[in-house]
Amino acid sequence: MEFFTAVFDALTTTQIDLKLQKVEYLQTNFYTYDMQHDTEIQSLVTPSYASFCKVIHPTRLQRPKGGNSKESLAKILHSIAHIEYNAIDLGLDAAYRFRNLPLEYYNDFTTLASEEVLHFRLLESLLKMLGYSYGDFPVHDNLFCAMQNTQKLIDRMALVHKGLEAMGLDANPFVKKKIEQAQTPLKHEILAVLDRIMHDEIGHVAKGVKWLTYAQELCNDNRSLCEILQEYDFNVIGKIPNIEARLKAGYSMQEIESLQQSLK
Q1: At what angle do helices 3-12 and 103-129 cross, to 10 degrees?
Q2: Range of the domain at 196
Q3: Which of these, 64, 98, 126, 181, has the minimum number of CB atoms within 10 Å of its CB?
Q4: What pLDDT, in 10s, does the model give residues 42-77?
Q5: How many CB atoms lie within 10 A of CB 58?
């Protein structure tokens, strides 16, 4: 079977369970695929979740301050599940779109997508315990737009996999604090899932760091992360960054400080 065709098939699949199964199959059988780098590169025109999620502008989303009701807790979990579902497609598109790279690159992003599948499954299970499902609340398409706007490897690694992925590292401790203060019997289960996500996401950001460095060396591009991101209207650092996690993922202190200074 041809790798890039199989990846694009998983990327464009709009049935949740089928997409998850296809990604897991890709990762499990990665070394059995034929890598034909000259196959046509197509684009995902609309998000794979558009048929079952109501997409609205980010400023219209209502973000609960706490998680003491079932609905508010479900909204918190749903927003994280949406990020993880997006991240599946981001990993798949990174593996699909950029050609003639080392085999390690494709294995890294197939593995990343499969780990995002695990995160999504864990969050989906928690949602169902509360009586909700993915698609029950409105979502935004910021991450899809970031994917569409980065058609060069350097830009994709900088904005998405080193940049926006690291926003999750910054947000995780604050979400944990909300859950710790919530009155819910699922508290320990949710906190365990958030810990698992944090552990894996450090590795995902590290992949972005690694392949951004590779892409820059390949093109002899010495721009800083801030310089690469100047043309994009995205913040890639929280107001209170998770410095420890970012350093573990391969950020330098200088990069963290520069990003803080560039906050919009």
Answers
A1: 20
A2: 3-33+55-263
A3: 181
A4: 988 999 999 999 999 887 887 777 767 899 999 999
A5: 10
Residue 50 within any structural domain of the chain: no
What total of structural domains would you count in the chain? 1
Count CA atoms closer than 13 A to 90's CA, side-chain side: 31
Instruction: List, for residues 113-163, the tens digit of each pLDDT value.
Output: 999 999 999 999 999 999 999 999 999 999 999 999 999 999 999 999 999
- Name 194's Cβ contacts closer than 8 Å, sequence gap at least 6: 172, 175, 176, 179
Question: Helix H segments across the chain?
Answer: 3-12, 16-28, 70-97, 103-129, 142-148, 153-156, 165-181, 187-219, 225-229, 243-249, 253-261
In three state form, how does the secondary structure of 249-260 look?
A: HCCCHHHHHHHH
